[in-house]
Every structure is written in structure tokens, then in C-alpha cells.
Amino acid sequence: MASCIAKAVEHWHTVNWVHQGICSHNIFLFTPRESNTKTRYDFSSPFLQGFDFSRPNAKPSLENHVEDLKYDVYRHPERQGPSREGHKKIHDLYSLGVVLLEIGTWGSAIDMIKRVTPEGRDVTKEDMFKWLKRHAKQRLAHHLGEEYQQAVMTCLNSDFGVSMDDDRNTMLANAFRERVLDKLASWKHVH
């Protein structure tokens, strides 16, 4: 499932579009086609949807900002708050990292944040970022192995080793393939 979703994002980026809404709410699972299976959902073929705000990579982002934990948890820290950067492919990859964390822990990122937030305290983007990374570091390697954990951490840290790129983000695409897709593919074959 994780690999399929990551490949969907890669394909979307290949045509030079950004999604701007990658989150677990936008991942659909359907029932298996075979009627003789006991599985309720087909986890091998997830469907990424929620393209309401998708756009070509070169177009400016919409300026409407809604501050809401259920959306902010998936937004790159640069994309949170009233003054924020325009949406880039790297921001989609951060969102993917949050979804991969949820898949790897089989839990909600919002619940992860709420469990560690002191009563009555607002969650800052810095806290959210720190706590998501902590969950990834503490929980993923044990259950899913270091390759999966590294793929998630790469996305969460936006650590693709690319500072300058062409207008199609070719170097970012290659780094994403190497540091995330290949790791997820190798994880898939091992587990």
C-alpha cells in the first residue's frame, strides 16, 4: 500500500503537477474484486484522490488559509500559518511522509499529536514536526525495518540532498526514487 501511494505521487509529479492535499483522508480502499476472499479491503490497490487544490507546479498556490489540526498535521511546516510559502513538490513529499508514518504505525497522525500535547496547550508547527519525527524514529524501525523508517524520515525531513534543481525538479525526482521509492520497494519484497 505504501509503495503504491508513493508511486502515485511520483506519477503526479512526473507530469509537473502538485497535489496539495495528500493525507490519509484522501486515500481510498475498495473491496477486493474476487468474491471468494475474506479480506474486507484491497490494500494492494489504494486510490489517491482529493485533487481539489492540485495544480501545475509553476502556478501560484491559493491564498486561502484554514488553520485546523486535521489539515495542518499533513502540511509541511513552511505551509502552515498565515504567511507561508507557495506549495512545492517537496511539500507533497512531506505530506506523503506523514501518510507513510500512519501506514507504518497503523495509527492516525492527529492521534499521535494529541497524545503528546499537554492539556489546554495549542500545538505549534514546531511541536507537530518534532513529535511526528519522534514517532517515526521510535516506532517504525522495530515494526517495519530501517528501510521503511529511512524512507519516512527522508520525507518528513525533506532530506533529498537537492538544493538547486531545474524547473521540472529532475534531481528531486531522482532522489525521491532512490531514497523513498527504492526503499519502499525493497521493504515490500522483504516483508
UniProtKB/TrEMBL annotation:
Residues 1-181 form the Protein kinase domain. InterPro entries: DUF7580 (IPR056002), Kinase-like_dom_sf (IPR011009), Prot_kinase_dom (IPR000719). One of its GO terms (molecular function) is protein kinase activity. Pfam families: DUF7580. This is Protein kinase domain-containing protein.
